[in-house]
Amino acid sequence: MKKYLIIILLGSVITSCKAPQISTNQTAIKVPDNYSLGSKVDSSSAKINWKEYFKDENLIALIDTALRSNQDLKIALQHIEMAKSGALATSGALKPSVNFAPTTSLRRFGLYTMDGAGNITTDILPNKIVPTHLPDFLLGFQASWEIDIYGKLKNRNKAALSRVMASVEAKNFITTNIVNEVATTYYELIALDNELTIIDEYVKIQENAVQLSKIQKEAAAINELAVKQFEARLYSLQEMKFGLQQAITENENKINFLIGRFPQTIRRTSTVLDSLSSNAITLGVPTNLLLNRPDLRQTEHELAASKLDVQVARAAFLPSLNIGAVLGTQAFRPDLLITKPQSLVYGLLGSLVAPLINKRVIQAEFDYANASQLATLYTYNQQIVSAYIEVHNQWTMLRNLEQSYQLKTKESTVLNESISISDQLYRNSRATYLEVLEAQENALETRIELVQIKKTQLQSQVNLYRALGGGWK
Predict the structure, then answer these.
(1) Which of 20, 148, 210, 266 has the fewest Cβ atoms within 10 Å of its own Cβ atom?
(2) 280 Cβ partners below 8 Å, 6+ apart?
């Protein structure tokens, strides 16, 4: 009967230690070989340091300050330290744990117990029986060590190291976004400055038109309605200035927030936006995205960590071997602790622990780790497609904006000429005041649109630089 019980027990243990197989064959999506946008250069502009990519000294100074003072970056650095601490903790689990553990206790055994009955007839010292209230002092070391048979602890440490690398890439991604936000907002500010200058020019033109209309009214050349129309247009232009000034304040404070400081004026170039040259940018090949984009590299490290988590969860189904040891001196009086070899105590214990009943917890942990791995993989695939599309969109936008800017420049030139023509015709009574107002309004709108296109062109270049993975080196 005993033999049968032993066989059944061993069979149950062996059956319970069977680990589930990792059945997923999912792999990361393969990026195309080329962008199909006419790019034949393998090198990507993402490798260019941001200090070399941008030419404006004021912009470079702002970005540099932001990267030193931004609160999000400081938080990201602390997340790196947290991840490092986690990795250090998992590496410690691979080594034996040794503790100096002095302990003291006081015990009283019941008389009608094996210990109590034996103590009343046993000498603990010559002619001295064991005390009823028995003190116990232990001075020594305790050690424990889990032997990593199936690589569970090693894989857990590797997963923690992968998360350290993921946290570093998360910091790099924040750096890229800060560079992008500061640069795009800086160009927004310059565009607003240019629009404000244009509005000031048209305010002066309109003020002259109002004065001329009043003179013509006195000469009975026009009526009061024409004067009111010119005055209304002047008020409209003056009102537009306040909207632009508010937008300037908000964008200045957006940069101040990124830098981590209270509101103050942002130093910037006073150059006309049209004179700012565009940087030549190369796409490289799509596989460069996997090397240069911090968000893709972050998810790649997280994917590696999640795969290791599955291995760790799978190893929980298998037996674990633990070794414990104690070495020291033990006595019922402190002065006897130094008595050797009488007070010497040591012990060694090895245990093989295997899950037998109620494995739902470790099965649930395995299922969770496996699902988390697949979710991370799908996120990685999604990010790859998104990154490719982002580069494609920004590149085509740049090409279309270039064509749009050239045509809008021609339109603006023609409409600016129409202002002087309409004014001359109006002075000679060959054009109405409505034609003059329409010519001015069309020319103003076109110049504003020209500034907007140029601004979008510069911002799109910055966005493409970030989409390729530039800005963190």
Answers:
(1) 20
(2) none
